[in-house]
Amino acid sequence: MTKRELSQQEIDTLFTGPGAARAEADHAVAAFDFSRLDRIPKSQIRVVHALYETFIRSIGSSLAGYLRTFVNPTLVSLEQISYGEFIEGLESPMCLAYIGLRPFDGTMLVGLSRSLVFGAVELLLGGDGTGIAAPIRKLSDIEKNLAQNVLRVFLADFREAWATIADINFDVQSLADDQHGIRVLTSAEAVVAVSIEMKVGQSSSMINMAIPSIFIKRLRDRFDRLHNVQRTAGRREDQLTMAKLLRQVSLDVDIRIDGGTVSTHDLSQLAPGDVLVLDHPTGRPVEAFLNHHPAFLGAIGFSGDRLQYTVQRSIETE
After folding, report:
1. 42-244, superfamily in CATH?
2. What are the structural domain ranges in the chain?
3. What single-letter DSSP state applies at residue 283?
4. What are the tens digits of pLDDT across the range 245-297?
5. Residue among 258, 216, 267, 197 at smallest CA distance from 108
6. I want to staple 74 with a disulfide (CB 3.0 to 4.6 A). Which of 89, 117, 183, 197 is the partner?
7. Strands of 169-176's sheet in order across
8. Read out DSSP for 130-187?
């Protein structure tokens, strides 16, 4: 068998002909964006959203007790964006806290509006926190210490919210007056950005948080274990929580004795000392109503100079 070299035209025909097209169809190539490797799936985003909702429910009362004023937080948004977009979206100037995620690697950012910081400082120093315009200047050392104390209260509840996933110690590493000063991530890296509206007294301010998406992605197995927990345990916990909340609820209690009928004429002739005979045997249980719904059967008696009602059994209702 003789060998010969292929011409350039024959080589081009080999790679661009029908055979090459069939090979390309058999091995279709899908585009892959390597810049999105740190993005987390929507299933984890939903769990993180639930964690922040738990955190929002607890932080209001904790800060209200610490600042001794009304505090009402609201979760405004939660989205996955780049670190550069997060930084550019912050108001300027902004008090930015860098939070360590021990024992894991990574840094979380918490942006506090200056009106919130100076309002909290005034409250802690005995003021009423109203009518104060945030000065355009850097925080003093005393103000930074007070702001860090507020952040510790804030992060203690945040740690409790994350306890179902992992035991994370959120530690304040430093405070900065300029969000462009320290870069802990590259501009393209993804973060889970959260905006919280914080009403403190009569004023309203914003808190912006960013936690690296790659940090959450590394905890995927812990999120999966949480997702696989039996729902019966969750329902039991919800029932106990609901029972604790219902202990503080007030109900209207009415004790009713069924009587007979009486004409309007006889009723109008009643005078002090007259006896009205009711069509209710003394041995028949008396119904008790909770918010106008029958709930118990029992008996009426005396306890000293007061009437009392003894519950004998509950009324089963749908």
Report:
1. CheC-like (3.40.1550.10)
2. 42-244, 253-314
3. T
4. 888 788 888 888 877 788 888 888 888 888 887 777 777 888 888 888 888 88
5. 216
6. 197
7. 71-82, 190-200, 203-212, 107-112, 95-102, 169-176
8. -S-PPPSSPPPHHHHHHHHHHHHHHHHHHHHHHTTT---EEEEEEEES-TTS--SS-T
